[in-house]
Amino acid sequence: MHAILEGCIRNDQKCQKVLYERYYGYAFKIVFRYIYRYEKVPDIVNDGFVKLFKGLKTFNKWESTNLEASFLSWLKRIVINTAIDELRRNNLMPEIGNIDETIWEHTTDQASADHLLRYKELISEVKKLPPAYRTVFNMYVIDGYDHQEIAAHLGISVGTSKSNLFKAKAYLQKLLTKEAQQQTGHAIFRQR
């Protein structure tokens, strides 16, 4: 990993290609949580990698015990910021589109398959949130930003960030409760 990153700093195209191909899927999934138009995501991911390659000299975690984990955290922040910039350019307009099932990894392990199914269901429900709620929810719950960071990134107050998170959670709870009631109703109906 260290050699690949050093090669990228030297603008070695082979190293850049290796890094890009290795982490493209990771970046894609992160951006897709913010931008639900499948056709727009690759452009945003590519913009994120351009920013990464330009700013790699500022990456300051070379001596960390887990270089790859530190790098992934840094990459995650870059692609999230790139996605947020895109949302800002569009005034947080809702992104409409379906989740393309081919982007999810296939697994034969039942526990992993169950986890993947729950993740897909959660993302499907998160996509129904209004854009401002969805962005704050993604940043706080999924990506681990605190309200101060969210406020700074989105140009909103900390109170607005907290309010949007509260409303997003309430909205999701309502959606999930409604869905659970519908499934329970269908199950009872089938048993009769």
Automatic annotation (TrEMBL):
High-level lineage: Bacteria, Pseudomonadati, Bacteroidota, Chitinophagia, Chitinophagales
One Pfam family per UniProt: Sigma70_r2
Gene3D superfamilies xrefs: 1.10.1740.10, Winged helix-like DNA-binding domain superfamily/Winged helix DNA-binding domain
Domain RNA polymerase sigma factor 70 region 4 type: 121-171
Protein's UniProt name: ECF subfamily RNA polymerase sigma-24 subunit
Presence of the UniProt keyword Transcription regulation in the record: yes
The family this protein is said to belong to: Belongs to the sigma-70 factor family. ECF subfamily.
Organism: Flavisolibacter tropicus
Keywords for this protein: Sigma factor, Transcription, Transcription regulation
